Amino acid sequence: xxHKLLKNIAFTLSLILIFNSSFAQNFSQSGxxxxxxxxxxxxLGEIPYGFSEIINEFDNKVGFVSxxxxxxxxxxxxxxxxxxxxxxxxxxxxxxxxxAEGLQAGIPKEINNPAEYNNKLFxxxxxxxxxxKLADTKSAFNPxxxxxxxxxxxxxxxxYIDAQDEDLIFGKGTEGxxxxxxxxxxxxxxxxxxxTSKFYLLTSVDFNMVNYDFLDVVHNYDINGExxxxxxxxxxxxxxxxxxxxxxxxxxxxxxxxxQGSKSSNSYLPFSRWLSDKKQ
Length: 280
Description:
Elements: H1 3-20, E1 32-48, E2 59-61, E3 63-73, E4 78-93, E5 115-131, E6 142-160, E7 170-172, E8 181-194, E9 199-210, E10 230-245, H2 253-266, H3 272-279
Antiparallel strand pairs: 1-3, 1-10, 2-4, 3-4, 4-5, 5-6, 6-7, 6-8, 8-9, 9-10
């Protein structure tokens, strides 16, 4: 089966799970939260699994990130959700010293001119979010942590700064170059700010990890010409506005039914009609 189709099926199933989640009986009728987020992103570096150093062959710049999120509470403090996002990583160097020169396919043996990279990441992930207060607490500061995972699709460009946009040294997912996608794992923190009973803000800092040294579009090699075993790490700082969709009357339906039941049952008590007439 097509690899991309498998990813789309998995993501669709996660959305179905969110809409129909009933892990906690009291939350089986809870609302669906939908929102949009925007902010900044930046590559932190590519790191050996022993955390001995952080490798940066570029001066990494701040990029733009945006995302759409849908979520649902499954308990008083836990929330499950799915996110579709777009993030830009970029950087440059005026004194290029790349370990991949002459080793990575498509990379020349010598790069002496200023160079830059631009990596557009389109991803989707599933996550769990835990609130330290009750999720529905009306507060200006309701902190949370979250963790999840998904896939990234790359549209990557590595070129000389003075070259035309389409004149690349190397790329992925662009015209003339093969496509690339990798798993991504996300951990983060942030806080929720209530605005009204329906609207709220989310402010978050996420750390995204990929098991591949390609976030800056250039691989990394040791002095013996062997590929280094690294993972890439980039961060996203986002703020978003959300709206909670609820079924009409779901919040007080049980209470209303109880009141109506009590009222209707009282009307059949002995002498109830006589007492009602007496009051009038």
